[in-house]
Amino acid sequence: MTASSLRYLLKEGFRNTWTNRMMSVASICVLMSCLVLIGCASMIFLNIDSLLSRIEEENVVMVYIEDGTADADITAMGTQLKGIDNIKEVEFIAKEDAWAEQLATMEEAQREFFTEISSDIPLPDAYKVTVEDLSQFDGTIDQIRQMNHIETIRENKDLAKKLVTIRHGIEVISVIIIAVLLAISVFIISNTIKLTVYSRKLEIQIMKSVGATNSFVRLPFVVEGMILGIVSGVISLGLVWGFYVFAVKQFSELLNSLSLEALKFDGYALPMLGIFVAIGIVTGVGGALISMGRYLNKEGSEISAI
């Protein structure tokens, strides 16, 4: 294909988009609706994932050390804990610090009672351990239990399992929603382009009769699909951004009361724009190819009946 032919076909793609602007607008609106739903659902899932990550960080394991353990052994325990693959962070909690924090939460009469009856600290030294991957929680705890000089371990296995289940459920739901919306977009756009093909059936037959190849016939429709996809992606990003900012503003008091903070959309704008444009192009081009494939036979000699 020569450069002049390519320019002609690209020009035809833009011309078709404008000539069939009512159908183009319909396609853009449909694809835009799907992308907006995908974008809003993605932001909801991202915020839920962020909340789960915070809960996971608070789901720590407390490893209490036996009284009388030598300082060298306590240090060695810390090194051994840090060497376990699935442990994200290890923090030593001295019993003096833990007791001081405990006393600070008591009323004055209680503090005086506990400080007067005995000068001994009723708490052991401990390591505060943060687990990185909760799906490997049980295995990590088993490795910790094999260590020496451990008095007891406080962990919340049930919460860890629930968090893993919730995260997996959210991932499955998000994939299903996105797949369904994409399938709907491809179906509607392919049918929209099918109407355009039908309206230009005679023109396409003439092109085929003078020896035009299938690629030559398809390209304007592919360009049209790309244009629809790019325009839909850009507009969709703006709508998702506006909806998200509005929703955060409306629920700001509720979020503050729960000590929660919504994610900033700015950090996701460019990646989402790229994803939207890519989805738009793939969907638009896919719809065009599916539609044209139904009308061009394998030999490329005629248009099939609708």
Provide structural commentary.
The chain has 306 residues and is an alpha+beta fold. It is built from eleven helices and four strands, in the order ααβαβααβαβααααα. It has helices at residues 3-19, 21-58, 71-82, 95-104, 108-117, 137-145, 157-199, 201-209, 214-250, 252-257, 266-293, and strands at residues 61-65, 87-93, 126-131, 150-154. It has a four-stranded antiparallel β-sheet with strand order 2-3-1-4, with helices on both faces. The protein starts with a helix and ends in a 13-residue tail after the last helix. The relative contact order is 0.16. Residues 298-306 have low confidence and may be disordered.
Summarize the structure.
The chain has 306 residues and is an alpha+beta fold.
Write the layout of secondary structure elements.
Elements: H1 3-19, H2 21-58, E1 61-65, H3 71-82, E2 87-93, H4 95-104, H5 108-117, E3 126-131, H6 137-145, E4 150-154, H7 157-199, H8 201-209, H9 214-250, H10 252-257, H11 266-293
Antiparallel strand pairs: 1-3, 1-4, 2-3
Order of helices and strands: HHEHEHHEHEHHHHH
Largest sheet: 4 strands, antiparallel
Mean pLDDT reading: 78
Q: Which structural class should the secondary elements be placed in?
A: alpha+beta
**Rg over CA atoms:** 31 Å
Spatial strand sequence of the major β-sheet: 2-3-1-4
- Beta-strand residue fraction: 5-15%
Which shape, going by the Cα principal axes?
elongated
Helicity range of the residues? over 70%
CA-CA gap between termini: 29 Å
Number of strands: 4
Low-confidence stretches: 298-306
The count of helical stretches stands at 11
